[in-house]
Design brief:
It contains five helices and four strands. Strand 1, helix 1 and strand 2 form a beta-alpha-beta unit.
Length: about 180
């Protein structure tokens, strides 16, 4: 099956990129492998990164939201692992962490989601392993591609939408000249 998967070319940048990796290290060995893959991908593009840890997958979107409001990152990599257990807590954590990340993304944040949601530890180990599925690198690559798109589409605009075509703004009641009715 893997032979049919497509991998986009690595994102390229003409100015520095800084990513925040937010990781929930509940399964430390799996988290470490996800981080290893993400860091290798980030460094391969010449970008820089910082890493913060949060208690669990549910806190990842909150940490990203706080970082977006209070710091200067270009994008984010969400990492962690949720393994199905005997209760419905699995569904809550998977759905709510994913929904939180998706909502932040719809607000314009560049986030690569590398929170694994698996049935068992073996699946998690294979997906996190940098020599196997390398989902940490995949999440970092996704964030970097979104940063590239944001930069492509986020340039200065003139005369688009409701923005005046010039810097000459007028406030209601302040006529620039003596208009005649």
């Amino acid at each position: 099956m893997a032979a049919h998967e497509y991998t986009m070319p690595r994102a390229e940048f003409d100015r520095p990129v800084k990513l925040l990796i937010v990781v929930a290290p509940f399964y430390r060995d799996i988290a470490d492998n996800l981080i290893k893959g993400a860091v290798a991908e980030i460094e391969a593009t010449g970008a820089t990164h910082e890493i913060v840890e949060v208690p669990g997958a549910l806190e990842v979107p909150t940490a990203i939201g706080i970082a977006e409001r209070m710091s200067n990152f270009d994008g984010y990599v969400a990492l962690g692992c949720v393994i199905r257990g005997e209760t419905t807590h699995y569904e809550t954590v998977c759905n709510d962490s994913s929904r939180g990340i998706a909502l932040l993304g719809l607000q314009g944040l560049c986030i690569g989601n590398g929170i694994l949601t698996v049935e068992n530890r073996t699946q998690a180990e294979v997906r996190a392993d940098p020599g196997a599925m390398n989902k940490g690198a995949g999440a970092a690559a996704a964030a970097l591609h979104l940063v590239a798109l944001a930069r492509k589409w986020g340039g200065p605009r003139k005369g688009v939408g409701f923005k005046p075509a010039s810097d000459d703004y007028r406030i209601a009641g302040d006529a620039k000249d003596d208009p005649k009715a």
